[in-house]
Amino acid sequence: MKIGTPKETETGENRVAMTPDSALQLQKLGHECVIEAGAGQAAGFSDAAYKEAGVQVVKTAAALFKAADIVAKVRPPSDAEVKRLREGQTLISFFYPAANEKLMQQAADKGATVIAMDMVPRISRAQKMDALSSMANIAGYRAVIEAGNNFGRFFTGQVTAAGKVPPAKVLVVGAGVAGLAAIGTATSLGAITYAFDVRPEVAEQVESMGAEFVFLDFEEEQQDGAATGGYASVSSPEFAAAQLAKFRELAPDMDIVITTALIPNREAPELWTKDMVESMKPGSVIIDLAAERGGNCKLTVMDEKIVTDNGVTIIGYTDFPSRMAAQSSTLYATNIRHMMTDLTPDKDGVVNHNMEDDVIRGATITHANEVTFPPPPPKVQAIAAKPKEKVKEKTPEEIRAAEVAAFKEQTRNQIILLGVGALLVLSVGLVAPASFMQHFIVFILSVFIGFQVIWNVAHSLHTPLMAVTNAISSIIILGALIQIGSSSALITILAAAGIFMASVNIFGGFLVTRRMLAMFQKS
């Protein structure tokens, strides 16, 4: 089948849904590739590069829609593009079906199949097709770069001959994909980074990236992120009030605020109010990644940069991924290619639109002249941490009773072991000569002392190599040293070999231990 990509018609959109590299991969699936002339120019991909990759270049969008069986694009289709769709044709793009019901119905009436990349379910198997996460990752990174471009100081702190420069303080509201990308970028640039999210399970992710998670002194059971596809859910009015109070407390100290909070199919929640903006220092920057849905900041103006009366810059751009068109196009084209891989399981160029597949069914919003949105919930839920079961804490009396019981059991086992050992020694002594018993008792004591000294030491206090192997090697080397002076040539050779191998083991153990200790030291 022919897969075609038209030039994006929306003003300022620089991305393209097919790159020369992704076209090569699509051709391996048995498909032919077509692209409109100049479609990749803004992203840095020339028509010549596409031709070199075996892609047919057509002059107009009309010619492309006529030639292609599958049309892949970035932005939702315009009215003109929907009118060009035909029976049996497939469209793959962002669509936002909840906000474009009329457009969706027109596509269904045309008999076209529409796969919305923004509807790919957030389950493990579909991560390779999750275009929303790919674009959010870029938006989070670009938000920090844009903030640095508008911030008048360094991110990292410095002490120079000209004076001391304090590090910038960055607050990221919302620790989703975009938020985590922003956190990683800000910390790598040296800023003191704080992060907040209504989902407490993300605190470990935030802290692992070097940021400090802002906790609220408020107890409320939040809905599991798995139930909402990994997104945050609506909070209670009491929780929202506590959240705003915390932000008012943080606002005067923050240099840069990046807001990413969104709730599916709703306007963006207002998290950064006018009084918070007024309390910020002159020169501070707010990047509102939720500007397209109304913004998390009360003063955000969509697609514009404004400066408030107190000198705070508020940026409400909605095209952050498009500002890094080459990278965005590469990732988005890879998402499309993975979608086509699932649609072409036999790699024979024949699309099998399997509506029993969770991922394909979830992303399909029109099929066979019917609107199939909204999809049923996926059989496999989104990844989420299992709630930890609360373990009842023991009272001091219960802890003491458990310790006494454990001590009694250990003492009983040792007495039984000693008794059995003494009986065995007496039994052997009745039949063995006195010279043998002298050596046998030394052997028994060595084993007993070795057991008590080595095996009873907690494993966390030593490496297994040092604990067991070196102890055994020491016994071997001592025995070999005693036997090396034997009159028998065979025993002497064996003793020398034993000394050599045991020495390698002992010194190797010390070297390994030294390397392990060096891992925890700063050079």
Main sheet properties: 8 strands, mixed
**What kind of assembly state do the chains in view correspond to?**
single chain
Beta strand count: 17
Structural class: alpha/beta
> Spans of 5+ residues with little confidence (pLDDT < 50)?
224-228
| Number of alpha- plus pi-helical segments | 16
Radius of gyration: 34 Å
Mean pLDDT: 87
N-end to C-end Cα span: 59 Å
Strand order in space, largest sheet: 3-2-1-4-5-6-16-17
Percentage of β-strand residues: 5-15%
Q: Shape, please?
A: elongated
Fraction of residues in H or I helices? 40-55%
Structure notes:
The protein has 523 residues and is of the alpha/beta class. It has helices spanning 20-28, 47-52, 61-67, 79-84, 101-110, 131-150, 177-188, 203-208, 237-250, 274-279, 325-343, 358-363, 396-431, 434-455, 464-483, 489-518, and strands spanning 2-5, 32-36, 56-58, 70-72, 90-93, 113-116, 158-160, 163-165, 169-173, 192-196, 212-213, 256-259, 285-288, 305-307, 313-315, 364-367, 370-371. It has an eight-stranded mixed β-sheet. A seven-stranded mixed β-sheet has the order 11-10-9-12-13-15-14. Strands 7-8 form a two-stranded antiparallel sheet.
Element layout with pairings:
Layout lengths: L1 E4 L14 H9 L3 E5 L10 H6 L3 E3 L2 H7 L2 E3 L6 H6 L5 E4 L7 H10 L2 E4 L14 H20 L7 E3 L2 E3 L3 E5 L3 H12 L3 E5 L6 H6 L3 E2 L23 H14 L5 E4 L14 H6 L5 E4 L16 E3 L5 E3 L9 H19 L14 H6 E4 L2 E2 L24 H36 L2 H22 L8 H20 L5 H30 L5
Parallel strand pairs: 1-2, 1-4, 2-3, 4-5, 5-6, 9-10, 9-12, 10-11, 12-13, 13-15
Antiparallel strand pairs: 6-16, 7-8, 14-15, 16-17
